[in-house]
Specification:
Elements lengths: L3 H21 L8 H17 L3 E5 L7 E7 L5 E7 L8 H4 L3 E3 L2 E3 L3 H20 L7 E7 L10 H7 L5 E4 L9 E5 L1 E10 L3 E2 L10 H13 L9 E9 L5 E2 L2 E10 L2 H15 L8 E6 L12 H17 L5 E4 L4 H5 L6 E2 L6 E2 L7 E3 L3 H17 L6
Parallel strand pairs: 3-6, 3-7, 7-16, 8-15
Antiparallel strand pairs: 1-2, 2-6, 4-5, 5-18, 9-13, 9-14, 10-12, 11-13, 17-18
């Protein structure tokens, strides 16, 4: 007997593709408030038609954030999570609108993450089709600033996550089909060195080189890397100096630190700070500061996450495909929403890849099975009353 959810989604696939074309062909770069809000308008209308009450958190500079809720006869509280912004500037969709080439649906934002936004909507529609309503609260939360460093939505995400039993993030699955069950914690630090300027030819002995001090620091910091444990320290942008005839008195370097847990990241940052406090060049002092907005918590593979993964793997098997969980070093909105321990899964949208580039795509053949997976996962969580472990 065919699965009624799968049958419904196959029937609605032409509608899905028309909707996806509408979303993809609307520019919505992070700095394009009008474009992002046009996507918000489209989503708000569709959410209302599905019985959601939509609250719009208005923003001045960037697009608005949406929090939509609807209630059922059950007790589980489930959050669907995504973002409406892309990395592409206005005019990109006019140059290369959505196209279909074999099994690939191409276009700016197809994978990251307009197909995922639709997957959430169509999963809900499929559940309505089979008259399933065993959920207490189903929330659909989308923010407009996922692709940029200066974020306004983090307090919203951190408030919404703990109010739910599970978070299902609508980002695309990995190119190999994996979903994401763990993400590293990330922080960026700026280290500034201050020494004393001098003429490099006439009085070099009077100088105290900030550049030399940072050079020592960077070499020593490289020794903090422990790939086996997932600890990484990467010196990125380096600034300092100008005229070669001057002993440089000021210089700076920006470090990217990552670890699988917040505790490990705290310890790693402490070891870097010890190096910063060391006097590598006599007379040169260094300071270390966390960059605002750069502190992304870890998405840790807790027992609740493991339970969700097991549920997803079992559902995928019933639907006829294999599924695996994967860990990745990059942060995501779920990292903030789940910071207090609410379990979740990421990568529940269609399979896709080549994000942020001219060949970004999703696999056409993955739309129905991945949307069915999401719908069935919502069912499974709801039928458990949100109790995962």
């Amino acid at each position: 007997m065919s699965d009624p959810i799968v049958a419904y989604l196959h029937e609605r696939l032409p509608d899905y593709l028309r909707d996806l074309e509408s979303l993809v062909n609307q520019d919505s770069g992070s700095d394009d408030k009008a474009g992002v809000d046009a996507v918000n308008d489209w989503l708000a209308h569709r959410l209302a038609s599905l019985g959601f009450t939509v609250t719009r958190h208005q923003q001045e500079r960037h697009g608005d954030d949406l929090v939509a809720r609807r209630h059922g006869r059950g007790s589980a509280r489930i959050m669907l999570l995504g973002h409406t912004d892309t990395v592409f500037p206005r005019g990109t969709t006019a140059e290369r609108p959505m196209t279909i080439d074999g099994d690939r649906v191409l276009g700016p934002g197809t994978c990251d993450m307009k197909a995922g936004l639709l997957t959430g909507l169509y999963a809900v529609a499929a559940l309505d089709h089979v008259e399933w309503d065993n959920v207490g609260t189903l929330s659909y939360v989308v923010v407009s600033d996922e692709e940029i460093a200066e974020r306004h939505s983090i307090p919203l995400l951190m408030a919404e996550g703990p109010a739910h039993d599970a978070i299902l993030t609508l980002e695309a699955a990995r190119e190999n089909g994996d979903i994401v069950t763990a993400r590293k914690a990330v922080r960026w630090y700026t280290v500034e060195a201050r020494g004393k300027a001098a003429h490099a030819g006439v009085e070099p002995e009077k100088g105290r080189s900030a550049v030399l001090a940072l050079a020592h620091l960077i070499v020593q910091a490289d020794g903090l890397n422990d790939l086996a444990r997932g600890l990484t320290v990467n010196p990125g942008e380096i600034r300092g100096g100008g005229n070669p005839s001057v002993v440089v008195d000021r210089a700076s370097v920006r470090f990217d630190l990552r670890a699988w847990s917040t505790a490990d990241l705290d310890a790693l940052a402490g070891r870097l700070r010890t190096l910063v406090d060391t006097e590598w060049v006599p007379g040169v002092t260094m300071t270390m500061a966390l960059e605002p907005g750069s502190d992304c918590p870890a998405m840790e593979r807790t027992p609740g996450v493991a339970a969700l993964e097991d549920m997803a793997v079992a559902i995928a098997r019933e639907l006829g495909f294999s599924l695996r969980g994967a860990a990745t070093g990059g942060g995501s909105d779920i990292s903030f929403a789940g910071h207090q321990g609410t379990p979740g899964l990421d990568g529940l949208g269609p399979i896709g890849g080549l994000d942020h580039g001219p060949d970004e795509y999703i696999l056409l053949s993955s739309i129905v099975p991945r949307t069915a997976l999401l719908a069935r996962l919502i069912q499974a969580i709801g039928d458990r009353g949100g109790r995962l472990v």
